[in-house]
Amino acid sequence: MELDEDSPSDWDEDDELLDVSSFGVAKWQRNERNDSRNDGSSTSRRRRDVFHDILSMDSSSQYDDFHTIDWVRDIQKYRNQRKDVLKAKKDSRKALIYSYLYRGAGWLVISLVGLATGFCAGIIDIGASWMSDIKLGICVNAFWLNQEECCWVQNNTAFGEEGCSEWYTWSEVFGHSTIDAGSYILNYIFFVMLSVIMAFLAVIFVRAFAPYACGSGIPEIKTILSGFIIRGYFGAWTLVIKSITMVLAVASGLSLGKEGPLVHVACCCGNLFAYLFPKYHQNEAKKREILSAASAAGVSVAFGAPIGGVLFSLEEVSYYFPLKTLWRSFFCALVAASVLRWINPFGTDHLVMFYVEYNTPWSFYELVPFSVLGILGGLYGVLFIKLNLWWCNYRKSSNLKRHPVLEVVVLALITAIISYPNPYTRQSSSRLIATLFKECGPEDDIDLCDYKRNFTRVDQSIYPTAEAGPGVTNALWQLSLALVVKAALTVFTFGIKVPAGLFIPSIAVGAIAGRIAGVVMEQVAFNNPSWFDSCSATGKCVTAGLYAMVGAAACLGGVTRMTVSLVVIMFELTGGLVYIVPLMVAVVISKWVGDAFTKGGIYDGHIELNDYPYLDSKREFIHNTLAADVMRPRRGSPELTTFTQDNMTVEDIEMLVSETTFNAFPVVVSKESKRLVGLVYRKELVQALKKSRNKYNAVSQSKVCFTNEMPLHPSPDSPSPINLLYIVDQSPFQVTDQTPANTVVEIFSKLGLRTCLVTQNGTLHGIITKKDVLGHIGALESIHPESMLFQ
Amino acid sequence: MELDEDSPSDWDEDDELLDVSSFGVAKWQRNERNDSRNDGSSTSRRRRDVFHDILSMDSSSQYDDFHTIDWVRDIQKYRNQRKDVLKAKKDSRKALIYSYLYRGAGWLVISLVGLATGFCAGIIDIGASWMSDIKLGICVNAFWLNQEECCWVQNNTAFGEEGCSEWYTWSEVFGHSTIDAGSYILNYIFFVMLSVIMAFLAVIFVRAFAPYACGSGIPEIKTILSGFIIRGYFGAWTLVIKSITMVLAVASGLSLGKEGPLVHVACCCGNLFAYLFPKYHQNEAKKREILSAASAAGVSVAFGAPIGGVLFSLEEVSYYFPLKTLWRSFFCALVAASVLRWINPFGTDHLVMFYVEYNTPWSFYELVPFSVLGILGGLYGVLFIKLNLWWCNYRKSSNLKRHPVLEVVVLALITAIISYPNPYTRQSSSRLIATLFKECGPEDDIDLCDYKRNFTRVDQSIYPTAEAGPGVTNALWQLSLALVVKAALTVFTFGIKVPAGLFIPSIAVGAIAGRIAGVVMEQVAFNNPSWFDSCSATGKCVTAGLYAMVGAAACLGGVTRMTVSLVVIMFELTGGLVYIVPLMVAVVISKWVGDAFTKGGIYDGHIELNDYPYLDSKREFIHNTLAADVMRPRRGSPELTTFTQDNMTVEDIEMLVSETTFNAFPVVVSKESKRLVGLVYRKELVQALKKSRNKYNAVSQSKVCFTNEMPLHPSPDSPSPINLLYIVDQSPFQVTDQTPANTVVEIFSKLGLRTCLVTQNGTLHGIITKKDVLGHIGALESIHPESMLFQ
Which molecular-function annotation in GO is an example for this chain (chains A, B) (predicted)? Predict the structure, then answer.
């Protein structure tokens, strides 16, 4: 059963794995709508009846849904197209203008994608911040303002936990002006009710309009960028629904973030604008260059970190990343960040709520607690990945998968009930992180900043370390509780059927742990100032906010196993090179600890969970297997199905095609010599045969040949032969059967191959598809789990 | 003449092209010394007598000098080695420790390289700054201090052009205490004399001890990292001599910088530490991972920009850059930067002299002058590249190449004579750039800062735009003169036989042009404040220093065609995200303008000039040629020299080997069928035959076979056959003759191949080497110069 890569029956399972089958008919409607919207294929169809399908489809769409693309052929197609365009430019003025448009299309698309991404991010930021606050109350005279803006308008900058005069909690709206048990309960009820309603709306919207809008999207983006086709995943409908439901999901207080989904939204923008230009729309490989840049823009607006975004795209998401893309990704990320800064969603001139700016020095000895945070972050990552995957597996195998709405509603209910009493879980995660990253100043009157300080010198920028008051102890208890709650809820939340990112919850968990460690260290330093060399200079020994930041980096590193991009993102969040060493130490240790227990981050885990055909180029395996072990047919299996170059009839070929499900058939000189001529693709073959029958009056007995020399007519009665050499790919990739499997994997991942033929002493022996490679790796991994090395 | 890739006669020309032949015997001595030092090959040898060579050489060195490496085989070799090490770790405790050492070697080497690079850079920075000042005078009581330090020690922070009391100009040392014509002339003479002496010493050292130490080294580093072998280029001797002569060359006042050479020094450190670990020392492909990281560290210390360094390595220098390298490069760059910060060579806590920190806003309309600077920068780049390449070509073809010392001395003399009268060319380029980047404050009493200002509000951080005084007009004239002088001298300087970087002169030229534009704009703004929206807010309309920075980026972009890395480096120099948009606009426009006139930057030009075998992965060509057009033998040439698998004798093979210069021979099943069995490499073949003759008593008539089945003895009298299957590479790369040449180029550059076989219908037709690919590209380029596209 060679060459059945991507055969429909195989990827049918995927439907379920993608977890969209449960949405029933809606999915296909959506798919068809998106098909016609994004890919221009006008015929809607189901994948089951493939032969009929291929016959009836238009020729414009090169790949079927859930198929793998062939990078080398696509890039070659693009080169030929470009050559034609450049050659034609001398012919007419119109062609000249077109050639300039053609060459400038990349920059144009990138600019548009950047603009759109920045714009979407701005709206989402404003919406999420307003909706999060609406759970607690409303701005009476200007309901469209969130709590902070409402109080700003009133010049009430120092609003405390109760808000300012214009901001009414729900109990106040309903007349309970005093703070008593009744009003507390009323607020509590409103909080829980609104949370559940938002979550319900989010999941209903996703379910009804765009099933692909659920989750963080990063595992799917990685898979798609590696060369897989999932139609509609970046559709306009997905964009709209994901943007709306993201706001609802974040506002509902569920333990999730909007950073991952923002990358998905950015990629949707990328896909939509790529649709405007045939250069990108018709070429899946070129389109992925735009998507790479878009994902950089997504991270850029999510964290206000353009350089970090580019590195994220390079390190984590992209597969095929030519240097041209680096430059364009950077441009795209920068445009998006500039638009977002212009929108200024938080009114702070910063792109994220938790931007901090301090540069108090740190002591060399503090690397010890930072390393401990790194170890803890790594362990947290391992635990989180294991538990989350266990829960997702349970969800897939149990009845739970049939009730996604109920699951979300129940989770939102539990989250809201647990969250409200604790002030650190009640506020939105972004605001919590901002609180934890910040240093305590004289204007902060929260428990966490209850230090016994003498604030006479208000102009001072660095506040000396002081003794903690009772409020700090109280805050530490609440933070510890929040840590447990957040960590537990995130395990169950990542994977539910609403847009759900993982960055913010991971950062929150890490920041809580780090801040607790920071406060403890601070008190140690206060009691033993001689241990810290920075104490003597400024009186400021330990920056508790820095510990929160290091903890956040460690946890996020443990969960996602990002490295450079994570450090750069955190560094762009602080705007100073001072803390790059602590961050790096924490991230590197967290990664080492994590890698010792589980291979790969949470995204790799979810890719594996969903059986996506993702060939990880970062993975190496150390077996002695050869191409002969990877190829089909296996030893002892029936021979490879091949065509001979000059003695088959139309009927023979049609029979072979309908009897098998292979996507490609090798053509050989003769059955005996098995010398390779080329490869014929099923889709093109079926079309060519149909055309021959309709246009050239070919009959079942017509000879088909794949050679330069037409055979002579055997007799005047026999039908004239047809030549199909023009559909033969005469440059298929070949390796010998003695090629090490490592090298085969490298060729597949570096060149982005779809199929490769295996020869021995010049004769064709077998064929390797991307799926065979993935299957081989999977089989070896399950036998020897230690044999896989992540680099 | 197929397969003559890297044959000695071919690369003999290279000797001259590398411009080391003129150094005569010294080169070979050096080469041998470095050979034994770096590569462990104990036998010194000349390349001319290759056959004898190969017979007598030890087997440890896999490649010859000036040969191309085979990435795929090297990586496969490494994988096998790693597998053995990991497998053995269960055997004994020693093996276990070794396996940990083996796995940790990468991080260890990287850390050491970072430390060494930071240390070297610190020493070079201190040395260059002291030696630059010694031309002007001396610190009487502490001769080891430079002017700035000398005055600091005396608490004379505000030293002007005449220096402080402790700093004696040479005329003062010799008793001329008054400032008159006599002392001026005395100082002038000392300046010129010392400049010439330093330049003379630099060129003599390079000539006598390490010819490879000349130039910037970046074209060679690019070539070596792409998989070429130049023995001794990263040797210990090169490191020492380059470090010393770099200081001398910079101090001599020649129009050159130390930034490029610092990358070379970092790579030398990388090579030396890689030598300590067999994992890297014995594997050229793995060694290049270390060199990639080292080059990042080099840029990191050159500009104090660790992230920029990593991106430079990724964008400009590296060829094979797995993601693992990204992370390690970052670490290496960070370690180097930390060490340099600890050394603190300038006493300012910053890693470069021209670090600036300001963030006054810029207006949207200023993008117009920034774009103009971008255009000018691009044009400057084009002009510079053309003139410099013309001059280098002239040097190569004229008698000038025989007198490198004289050339350097004369150039130093002219430079010194022209430079002294103008204060902006008299000071070192770094200091000039620092002056131009900086904003004028109340403490600056130089001409350029002669504004009619009211400095009562000294506490203010932003100084309002003011009317220019007569000093500014004077300074502008001097700067214009300096611009012309610097630009002209750099054309003749880049390429001389001392360490000579291009970054600093380019930045200086750009900064001068930018500063002039900035001052002009400033005066326009002062007279029309309503045109600039930022004027109303702070009174500060135009930041002249920002224009200098933008101009510098534009010029450097035009000359080198760097993009992301350049923007990131400039951004790290300023420490703020505010100016990233102006910088990006200037760089992108400069690149567009430059690319419209010349393809590729100055480094690509020098690679081409020197005919280095560099296969640029950024380059694409749009021809319809096929693999059949690239391969040897050409149509009509004699057939490919092949071995048959079972009917040749030892004598046959030895004759074929000695008659040809090919590096590899394909093995086929039979002359008739030409079905491919594998590839035999000359080096291994010669060794195997020698071993067979010596150990297994093979005689000339012995049959040699390359099969699994040994043939039967034809008769008892005939000698027993020998089987050499074990030296056959049974997994050579193959493409069909119909494969587009584009795809062939892509395979070669992405996989790092050395040779690839060409088949047609299963029979062997020809062979393609990296040199054939380069030759094909070169041939097409010379016929259709427009056909090459840089991306």
Answer: voltage-gated chloride channel activity
